[in-house]
Amino acid sequence: MKPGNIESMPAAELFSFDDRAPLNPAERAALDDEFAAQQQKIERLNQYYDEVVAELRVLLDQSEDEGGEAA
User: Fold this and answer.
1) 39-44 — which CB contacts under 8 Å span 24+ positions?
2) For 48, how many CA atoms within 13 A lie in the half-sphere containing its CB?
């Protein structure tokens, strides 16, 4: 089989999303909870990164101001 070429895959390895087994309610709830937790973690990381970038911009502006005054 060539990587990325589905035509070279054995038929036994191919599947359709229509062939999926339905999840029972307990499995679905667990997956939903895990997904929600991951979303919250990503939101916290994005907020942290936004704060870090804002702080870096302030420091950069301060260093440019100080450099401009010294020249």
Assistant:
1) none
2) 6
Locate 35 and state its tokens. 């997904």
DSSP sequence for 27-50: HHHHHHHHHHHHHHHHHHHHHHHH
Q: What is this structure's pTM?
A: 0.55
Q: How far is CA 29 from CA 32, 33, 35, 49, 67, in A?
A: 5, 6, 10, 30, 57
Output the DSSP codes for 45-65.
Answer: HHHHHHHHHHHHHHHHHHHHH
Token pair 């870090």 is found at: 52
Q: pLDDT per residue over 15-56, tens digit each?
A: 666 666 777 889 889 999 999 999 999 999 999 999 999 999
